[in-house]
Amino acid sequence: MPSTQNKDKPWDTDDIDKWKIDPFTSADNIAGTFTEESSFATLFPKYREVYLRREWPEITRVLEKHGIVCQLDLVEGSMTVKTTRKTFDPAAILKARDLLKLLARSVPREKAIEIMRDDRAADIIKIRNLVRNKDRFVKRRQRILGPNGSTQKALELLTECYIHVQGNTVSAMGPYKGLKEVRRVVTDCMANIHPIYHIKELMIKRELAKDPELVNENWERFLPHFKKRNLAKRRKPFKIVDKGKKPYTPFPPPQEKSKVDLQIESGEYFLGKQAKERAVREKREDAMKEKMREKRREREADFVPPKEDLAKKEKKRKRKEEDGVEKKKKKKKKKKREEASVDEE
């Protein structure tokens, strides 16, 4: 039986982009209005209140085109979006929810409203719980921005995403493929892998994608492989045990004395509770006094005059005296010669 699939399709030409996503219009919604109302609410910080109040009319105007109603509650500090009977796109309410999240994370209104496009998505990356130490967290968060925001700009160009670092989160908005790369870069940066390595990798991938011969090949051999180098100083153990070979003895090592045995030997075991506390306090005070004396010696060391070399000074003085005696003798001889020459004349 001949195949019916091999027939000519005059409408299927090469100039058609089969991967193109057409915008969703009201004509595409065959089912009609929604049976239930969907709503999402998001809280926003106090410092965003003035900005949101000023920009809210413009946000309302953008959401009305998609049939979404929005409400700003300044008493509770929340923003709410709801579907209406005019809503035709089921994904519009999810896009509106993401819009509220971006606005709450200090993203400007001009950038945030782009999320309503079909080819845009948002991702809020929480980074505070990835690093325990506060100082280390601040330094690693600064790496995402880079000097004068250069690292952030490079990532935005390579991933085609808008990136906004605010507080304990990183807000990203763009195509799905770019968002995946942004999340990987941010999480690795918090794990102490510098973003510059990912930027190099993305630049190489971008150039390889332009080559038609390498588009469908494995790019693993072209990508750089950076070895992990732990340059931190090795932690020295409190007790360094010699693991070298020791001479063999058939006798076992002597049993180490327990804490109680050491206390009995020193007599601390037989002291009362108050005497023990007094001994601990005195020991602490002695250590503190010793430390204070040491610090005082360090401070006074700057004001101690340097020691002068008296032997060198003595040598110089003697040399000067000898030179002075020799000069006097020369002057006397000169005078005698002059007097003798006058007598002869």
From TrEMBL:
Domain of life: Eukaryota
Pfam families to which the protein is assigned, alphabetical: KH_KRR1_1st, KH_KRR1_2nd
Ranges of Basic and acidic residues composition bias in the record: 275-312
Gene Ontology molecular function: RNA binding
Annotated ranges, domain K Homology: 123-191
Protein family membership: Belongs to the KRR1 family.
Protein known as: KRR1 small subunit processome component
Lineage summary: Eukaryota, Fungi, Dikarya, Ascomycota, Pezizomycotina
